[in-house]
Design goal:
Blueprint (H helix, E strand, L loop, with lengths): L7 E5 L4 E5 L7 H4 L23 H6 L3 E3 L2 E2 L14 H4 L2 E2 L2 H15 L3 E4 L6 H13 L5 E6 L8 H9 L2 E9 L3 H6 L6 H13 L3 E8 L6 H16 L5 E6 L2 E2 L3 H4 L7 E2 L10 E2 L1 E2 L3 H19 L25 H6 L3
Parallel strand pairs: 3-6, 6-7, 7-8, 8-9, 9-10
Antiparallel strand pairs: 1-2, 4-5, 11-13, 12-14
């Protein structure tokens, strides 16, 4: 049976060797259901609060049932992402009937009505169908999931339906915030359309958490200062509660790795003895990213706590930086333009 596993390395004791099984077809979500955990006593586990800031607090303060609504990503074009891997590029969706059945089974198992839908990017159309069914069937749950901040989420009726169905939090990648670098990574939306979707969602009572990234190959000092200024304005507008900032990581299965020569990326000769999917590299701007790293992290840390939003972004740096090219009311004007 072990030879029928999908894309799995396994150790064969008899032959004292490692083998790879990758010939099996994907199992449909509609028959995969959820991971059975019979025998586990949920009541024996206690909550661990690792951060007092919502929505991060939510993730560790309750027992969350884990359930996948859709596999892969419906966009699958971001250049930094491992879009060549099977679990990203092969997008599939479960049926609403099966999802509702699994939700009920998990509630019975855990006695918890908190759900984390573990999708890479939950399709808006699927969320719309699910939220509608949850409301019509009067099935009371609280849930959060990961999305792309695409235009459908700017629809007021849709956002309010999500909130009414039990959606309390949404997470998603805003990444670089400036349109120039969003185009470089092929994110598929502009910052203007993204913040409009965020405004509608947040005004409907849904907490928003974003993933931010800096150090995109070719990102300049001006880009980084503009990035931080846009972040400050988004926080100030009250449409994003928290964010997690990390430095760009070059991975083996991304198109950035495939285009390494074009991007002038120089690889380190050091190899990891275990895995090398995360590639160590340097480029012409790496020194800039090293220098800007701590101030950027410090600023976002404070923004998450609602502090430092009224000071100029230059104050976070102990060295001279370019002035932001972004207008002071850029985000506010974007949110309220007709």
């Amino acid at each position: 049976m072990i030879q029928k596993l999908k894309n799995t390395y396994y150790f064969d004791k008899k032959n004292n060797n490692i083998f790879f099984s990758g010939s099996e077809k994907n199992v449909s979500l509609s028959v995969r259901n959820f991971q059975k955990m019979d025998g586990i006593k949920v009541s024996d586990y206690f909550s661990v609060m690792d951060n007092p800031v919502a929505p991060i607090y939510l993730w560790t303060t309750h027992y969350w049932n884990k359930l996948q609504l859709s596999g892969g990503c419906y966009w699958k074009k971001c250049r930094f992402c491992d879009t060549s891997l099977d679990y990203i590029k092969n997008n599939s969706q479960d049926t609403i009937k099966n999802i509702l059945s699994n939700i009920c089974r998990l509630i019975k198992f855990s006695n918890s009505r908190y759900f984390h839908f573990t999708d890479e990017a939950t399709p808006p159309a699927l969320l719309q169908k699910l939220s509608n069914e949850l409301i019509n069937s009067n099935l009371k749950i609280s849930y959060y999931t990961n999305i792309r901040f695409d235009k459908p989420f700017a629809n007021r009726g849709f956002a309010e339906q999500l909130s009414s169905s039990g959606c309390i939090c949404l997470t998603g990648g805003l990444e670089t915030l400036t349109n120039e670098t969003l185009k470089k990574i092929n994110k598929g939306f502009s910052i203007e359309s993204a913040v409009k979707a965020m405004k509608t969602l947040s005004e409907s009572g849904i907490l928003l958490h974003a993933y931010l990234m800096y150090g995109i190959p070719g990102q300049t000092e001006n880009d980084l200062i503009d990035f931080l200024e846009i972040a400050r304005q988004i926080y100030n507008a009250g449409i994003m509660r928290t964010a997690y900032l990390h430095r760009f990581a070059l991975t083996f299965h991304s198109s950035y790795y495939a285009d390494a020569k074009i991007e002038n990326l120089n690889f380190s000769k050091k190899k990891n003895p275990f895995a090398n999917n995360d590639i160590k590299y340097r480029d012409h701007f790496s020194g800039i990213y090293d220098r800007y790293s701590k101030p950027l992290q410090t600023a976002i840390y404070n923004f998450n706590r609602g502090t430092g939003l009224d000071i100029t972004v230059a104050k976070w740096f102990d060295f001279k930086t370019p002035k932001p090219r972004i207008l002071k009311n850029y985000i506010q004007d974007t949110l309220y333009e007709s």
